[in-house]
Amino acid sequence: MELKAISQEILWIVILLAIVLSFVIPETGQIFTPYLIIPLLVLMFFTMLNIPINDILTGAHKKGAISRGLIVFFVISPIIAVLASLFLRPEYAVGLIFCSALPCATSAAFYVSRLGGNGALALILTALSTMLAPILTPILTLFLAGTRVEVDAFVMFLDLFGFIVLPLIAAEVLRYLVGKKTVKKISDAGQILAPICIFFIVFGTISVSSGILFGLVPLAIASIVLFVGSFVAGYLFVPKYGLAIGYSAAFRNSSLGMVIALNTLGPIYAVPAVMLTLIYNVILIPLILIYKKRKPNAQAI
After folding, report:
1. Is residue 281 pLDDT above 90, yes or no?
2. Which strand (E) or helix (H) includes residue 182?
3. How buried is residue 27: exposed, middle or buried, by Cβ count under 10 Å (0-12/13-18/19+)?
4. What is the mean pLDDT of residues 95-103?
5. Widest CA span of the chain, in angstroms?
6. Is the distance from CB of 51 to CB of 167 less than 8 angstroms?
7. C-alpha to C-alpha distance for 273 and 276, rounded to whole angstroms
8. What is the rounded distance in angstroms from the CA atom of residue 101 to the CA atom of residue 18?
9. What does the alpha-carbon distance between residue 254 and residue 266 come to, in Å, rounded to a whole number?
């Protein structure tokens, strides 16, 4: 089994362990909180190194499903978040709306393929939503949540730019300077480091707010509404590629969201991203059990 497959196989275990530890020994997790920028930058660099930019740009302009998928991500999901957050306190509402405008989870292509969906489409959606996020995420958060609390969209843009565009540039420079074999070796090393980075991101972020999560039933309900609503919208909007778009719309890059919200908005605004991480993990465990019984789908768009 390839390192990438092994990394994705154990990812849910790593996340679950980080969640459990954040509730058992939150003081230890909080030691890592000020330094979460480091594992996130490492994670995003290896994410960009594994995205075939040329292939994505070649296929992006040919497929109507891609544009419809992006509409679900950056139009329909934020609207669902606004409706789901009407009865939340302003800080949680802003955090949930912010999460609804995040890019797809980096593991979307892997799980969509394992579940029998179009993994190639999920990969393109992940890449494009990630590249659009530095611009669209701050604008949508400001437009949809700026009336509730003050949102500094420019600072958010700078954070997202630093965590997305700079790793992308670094990955492209590395591709230019070294051969494919060297890039492959570095990428393989990244498959080992990725779960470790995610562990510290989840552990360090959830530890900050673990003491209040169990009392946030309204936020949990709103987060589930956003998750289910995004999946259903994506599934129904483009039935031919329903699984790829629905999964990608529902599972967002909560690791990125937790760190950006923590740094840009404040700890309380990161709580919805933490809640969504918990929900993702609860959903991911049965998905793991399902996809282990299926063969990966190598279907191309």
Report:
1. no
2. helix 180-213
3. exposed
4. 93
5. 54
6. no
7. 5
8. 25
9. 15
CA–CA separation, 300 and 298 (whole Å): 6
70 touches 125 (CB < 8 A): yes
Phi, psi of 110 (to 5 degrees): -65, -50
Radius of gyration of the chain (CA): 18
Is the pLDDT assigned to residue 61 strictly greater than 70? no
Q: Tell me how crowded residue 58 is: count the other CB atoms within 10 A of its CB.
A: 11
Token couple for 246: 């629905």
Q: In whole angstroms, what is the distance from residue 253 CA to residue 22 CA?
A: 19
Non-local (6+) Cβ contacts of 72 within 8 A are 230, 233, 234, 237, 245, 249
pLDDT tens digits, 124-133? 888 888 888 9
225 sits in which H/E element: helix 217-237
Domains of the chain, first to last: 3-291 (1.20.1530.20)
The two three-digit tokens of residue 89, written as one number:
């306190």
Cα gap 74→102, rounded to integer Å: 8
Sequence-ordered list of residues with C-beta below 8 angstroms from that of 292, at least 6 positions apart, any chain: none
Instruction: Report the distance separating Cα 249 and Cα 126, nearest Å.
Output: 10
